[in-house]
Design brief:
The protein is of the alpha+beta class. The protein has 4 helices and 5 strands; from the N terminus they run H-H-E-E-H-E-E-E-H.
Length: 182
């Protein structure tokens, strides 16, 4: 039983690290693409940079609608601080594209986005804007004061490991009882 537990724990930690890496690569590439498109359309003027982003946003939303994410609960969100609240500009999810309601930065919700909007970059396990525990990667979009988050429900990552533990514990129990009976 200890061997089954330790091996599953090691596999789980590896899966978490791989998923974090994939999510982090996603947010970094998306942030750099948004920055580059905005710069291309604006030269070096900050007001034109913001205006060019407003022009790019509908195209960005449409591009995201044209592909399906690889996980059921995976989600990609883009937000900014507006009048003291986190305002979501885009949500790409297999479950829908409607924009979430604004979230107060003082709330315990949307922790990955709060970190991105604070200029931080990384991965974490925390609560999303709905209060769901997620594995998330976050990245700021420089010069536009935006944040990008890619996330997946932690329960989706854990599901195959829970199933495997139950199956291996059952099989181990049967084998141990059969061996003891013999």
């Amino acid at each position: 039983f200890i061997l089954v537990g330790v091996s599953n724990l090691m596999l789980y930690r590896t899966a978490i690290k791989e998923e974090q890496k994939r999510l982090f690569e996603t947010v970094q590439s998306q942030a750099r693409l948004i920055e580059e498109f905005a710069r291309f359309h604006s030269s070096d003027n900050y007001d034109r940079l913001l205006a060019s982003f407003d022009t790019i946003l509908p195209h960005l939303i449409e591009a995201h609608r044209k592909y399906e994410l690889h996980k059921k609960t995976m989600e990609f969100v883009l937000a900014r601080l507006d009048q003291g609240n986190i305002v979501f500009l885009m949500r790409h999810s297999n479950l829908g594209h409607e924009q979430p309601k604004p979230v107060s930065p003082d709330s315990n919700l949307a922790e990955p986005m709060r970190r991105a909007l604070a200029g931080r970059s990384g991965t974490m396990i925390g609560l999303d804007y709905l209060g769901v525990k997620v594995l998330a990667a976050y990245e700021p979009v420089k010069d536009l004061n935006l944040g990008v988050v890619a996330k997946i429900d932690l329960s989706e990552v854990q599901a195959p490991f829970r199933r495997t533990i139950l199956i291996t514990l059952f099989a181990s129990s049967v084998l141990i009882l059969a061996g003891a009976g013999v």
